[in-house]
Backbone:
């Protein structure tokens, strides 16, 4: 059986530090792709994932929530940091060049495409896949969660993984 994603990236975190998937070995990366100008999907997903982290309590310390932009033209490290610090401080924002972000999207099989949007101050939005990926401490695909799942359902599925079993022993 093949894994649904390759879980590779070579990006920059919201502090300007170069990172790859290997940077997060030893923890359980929880990866969501989005962009800071998103008006609906991303705020809803980030709030839901924040609720999951709250529900996991100490178990959330085993996770590394990552927010990878699909809009590198606007989402610089500083923009990502400001956006996340305000409402989603447990997330690390990742960005990079257009080529780096395109490679990360391809590795995770994420669809995202710039589209004209007269309601956006910059004139465009970036509709994208709304799937959260869980990687193992070895950097391998472990699970994924669609946007249709509630925080309670995601929490329950995460609790079936060894990150929570380890803490409950």
Residues:
């Amino acid at each position: 059986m093949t894994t649904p994603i390759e879980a590779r990236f070579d990006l920059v975190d919201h502090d300007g530090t170069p990172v790859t998937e290997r940077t997060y070995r030893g923890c359980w990366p929880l990866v969501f792709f989005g962009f800071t100008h998103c008006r609906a999907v991303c705020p809803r997903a980030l709030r839901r994932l924040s609720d999951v982290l709250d529900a996991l309590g100490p178990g959330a310390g085993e996770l590394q929530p990552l927010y990878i932009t699909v809009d590198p033209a606007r989402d610089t490290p500083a923009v990502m940091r400001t956006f996340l610090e305000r409402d989603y401080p447990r997330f690390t924002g990742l960005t990079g060049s257009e080529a780096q972000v395109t490679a990360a999207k391809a590795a995770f099989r994420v669809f995202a495409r710039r589209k004209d949007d007269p309601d956006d101050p910059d004139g465009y939005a970036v509709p994208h896949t709304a799937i959260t990926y869980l990687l193992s401490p070895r950097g391998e695909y472990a699970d994924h969660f669609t946007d249709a799942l509630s925080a309670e359902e995601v929490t329950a599925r995460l609790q079936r993984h060894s990150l929570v079993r380890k803490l409950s022993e």
About this structure: The chain has one domain: 10-168.
